[in-house]
Design brief:
Chain lengths: 406, 475
Amino acid sequence: MPEVFTYRNAPPSRIAPEGALAGLRVTVQPNLAVRGWLCEAGSRALSGYTALQDATVVARLVQAGAVLNGSSRMAELGFGLAGDTSVRTIVDGHADVALITDTMGEVRLAAAGAGLFGLKPTYSLVSRHGLAGLVPSMESIGLAAADPGRIAETLAVMAGADPDDPSMPDDCTAGFSAALPSGTGSLTAGIIEESLSSLDPDERLAFDASVARLGVAGLAIQTLNLADYGFFQDVHHVIAAVEASSSAGKFDGVRYGHRSTAGKNWNEMYLNTRAESFGPLIKPFLFQGAYFQFERYPAFENACRLRGRLLGAVDDLLGQVDLIVLPTRRPASDAMRAATIEATYAAFALTLPASVTGHPVLQVPNPGLAADQDTGLQLIGRRLDDGRLLAIGQHLSSAARGGTLI
Amino acid sequence: MKYEAVIGLEIHVQLNAATKLFCDCPNRPGDAPNRNVCPVCLWLPGALPRLSQESLEKAVLACLALNCTIQNESAFDQKVYYYPDLPKGYQLSQHHKPLARNGWVDIVGADGGLKRLRIHHIHLEEDVAKLVHETEGRTPISLVDFNRAGTPLIEIVSEPDMRTPHDAMEYVKALRAQLRYTGSAECSLEQGTLRVDANISLRPAGTEALNTKVEVKNMNSIHNVGDAIAYEIVRQTECLEKGEPIVLHTRLWDPERRVTAPMRAKFEGPCVPDPSVAPIVLTDAWLDAIRGRLPEMPARKSARFMETYGLTPDEAAAMSAERDLSEFFESVVARDLPPRKTAGWIASQLIPALRERNQAVGQTHLTAERFASLLGALEKEIVNTQSAREILVRLLDSPAALEEIIQNGGFRQLSETGDLETLIDRVLAAHPADVADYRSGNPKVLGFLMGQAMKASQGKANPKVLKALLAQRLG
C-alpha cells in the first residue's frame, strides 16, 4: 500500500479559527496550486514544479479557517482515477473533505467506491484559477465527504466570482449559499431508461433499492427517454481528448517541469522532453486528441454540435422533472485500476453525461448496501441547483441515521 | 504566354496597448529579457487568460478605420503548433469568428486612377516569444525571451485584389496611414511593429483562376515589399516558362542579396475553439462609444482642408497624411497665418528636416506656437527666407526663444535704405565692367549684382528693398 499523501502538510501555519470552516480538514489533489507545495498533477511532465501562488479556492478555504492537511496521489493529469488516494484520506480519518477534480466523473466514482457523497458542482460555479487542468470545458473541482452538509459549507466558501477566472459566466458570480432549500416532498425525479441497459440484474436491484429511498423521502419517480443517450461517451471522448491535447501542449521543458537531457540541440530537447513526460495511459489519449485536431477536425466539430444537442435534450428533460437519476457505477468495474483508455471510459460510462452537459450532480451512497454492491445514485439537477441536490442528500443521510423525515 | 500576378497580403500589426493581450504585463518586448512575464504569459499550470479591454478597444478602432464591419460576436481559437517560442503549444487567435470582416482602403493605382482594395477580415491574436539560437561553439545554446509572448497583435488579411508591386506598396502605405491616425499602433516595418507576409500566384492574363501561391516574408521596408514581390513574379514566371510546377511554400526575402530563398513547407496547424477565453460580445451601444472616439480620418480631413483653407489637392493630402502634422498645421494656421504659405513651409522645410532627424514633430523643441512666430517674423519681413530656414533648425534643436535666436544669430533682416545703399556702393565699385555691361543693355547682369550684394550682407538683406534700390541706382 503506497503512502496516501504525496505531500503531508506540517501542522497548520496559517490558521483562521474564527472562519466558517474553522478546523475543517481538507485534502487536495496535487493539481491544485498551494503556494510552496509541489504541484505535479501526478505527471512527470510537472516533476519538481512548485506552485508560486494559491489557487483561488485554496486561498478562500484557508481564509475561512480550513486546514489543508496535504495532497493526495492522483491519476496522471487527472484523467480517470488510476492510483488516486483522495477518498482514502477521509476513510482513514485524516480529512473531512477531499477536493477531486471531476472531468469524467472522478469525484462521483471515488465517493461511490468509499460510500461517500460526492458533488460535481455546476460547471463554472467554482473558479478554475490555479487548477492545473486537462479538459477546461468540462472539469469542475468536486467535493467528497461523508456528510452533504459539509460539502455545502465548503462549496459556499469556494464558489463565486473570481477576477482571475473571467471564463465564469455572470449567473455564477453570486456564488452558493450554504443555507439549503427545505422540503423534498413535492419533487419529481426522472430515470433515463436508456442508462439502465448496461446494468446486470444484481446491479439493477441495487439501483432500484437506492431509487426506492427517494420514494420514501417523498419524491415522485418517473421514467424518461433520451434517444441520444448513446452519444455521451463518444462526444466526451473526442472533445476531452482534443482539449487534453491542447492543455498538455504547455509541457515542453522550456519553462518548468521535466526537461530531457538527451538531444544535441533545442529541437531534440523539445521532442525528447515531450516523449519522456507522459505515462502510458495519458500519452495515447493525447495522441487521440492530436489526431482529431490535425486529421479529423470535422469529427471534432460534429462532436461539438452533438454536445449542444445533448445539452438541449437534458435541459428539456429537466423541464419535465426536477432532477434526473442515474446509477453512478457498475461496482465490478474498478476505475482505480483502469490501465487503458477503453477500461477508463468503461468504468466512467454512467458519469459522462453530466460532464458533457455541465449540470450539477451529486453521488449519493446507500448505507444499506455493501460497498461492492452499491451502484450509487447520481442526482442531476438543473443548472445552479446544487443546493437542492445537497438538500436531498442531507435528507437521505439523516434518514439513514434514524433522523426524522422532513 | 503573358502572366498576371495575384497578390494578397497578411499584415500583422502590433497594438500599442499598455499591457499584453491576456495579462497585465507591460507591452514592452524590448526590455531586458524575461522582465515582463507572469504566470499567465509564461502559461504556468493553473493560469487563465484575462482579455485586455484596452487591446480590444484599440483593435476595434483599427478595424473601424479600415472600414470593416465589427462582428457582434467573435471568439478565440487555439492555433496548434509545437515550438519553444509558443508557451502553451498553441497561439490564441481568432480563426472561426474574427473580430471584423469586409473592409477596404483606397489607393491610387499605377495608372493614376482610384483603386479600392478589399480586406477580407481582421482578427486579434497574441504574439509569440523570441528565440535566440547560438550555434557557434561546441555546445549550441538556445535562449527564449518571453517579453514578446502574449503581446497584442491584429492580423489584417486582404482579398487577393492586388496585381502589381505598386498596388501592394500603396496598400501598405494607405493602411499604415489609417492605423496611425487611430493612435492604436505605431506601424513601423523597420522596427517590426508592422510585418507584411505576401501571397503571390500567377495566372494567364485575363483568366480568373487562383493558382498555387507562394508566401514571402521578412520585408523590413515598403520598398522591400515591392522588390520582393517583383522578384517573386519574375521567379515564378521563369518557373512556369520552364514547365516547373509552383509548390505551396514560404520564402524569405534576403535584403542583402535582393532575392527570395525557400524557408520551409507552409504549415497550417488546426484551429480549435478555446474554452477558456469567453466570447467577445459587443453591444451596439459599446460600439457606438468606440466609434465616437475615431478621429477625423485623412480623406475627410483633406477635403476639409481644401474647403476651409483653400489648399490645393496635393497640399491638402500632404497636410493630412500624418495625424500629428495635420494637427500641427491647423494649430499654426489658427494663429492667423496664411494657410497655403504655412502648408508650403511644412511640406518643403519642416517635413524634410524631421525626416533627416528621424523624429516626429512632438519629439523636437518645435511647437506650433514657435513655428507660427517664425512664419510671423517672415511675414513681417523681420527675417528673410534664407535666415528663416536656419532659424527653423535651431527651433527644432534647442529650446531657445525665437527673439533670442534672431538676436544672437544676427538674423535680423537689413531693410534700412541707408545701410543697403552703402552696401550697393561697395558692390558697384568692385564690379565696374558688369555695371557697364548692364547699362549697355544686358539685363541678366542684374541677377549677378543682386547675388553679390546679398553675399555682402551675409544673406541678411531684405531682397525686395535691395532689388528696388539696385535697379534704381543702375537706372
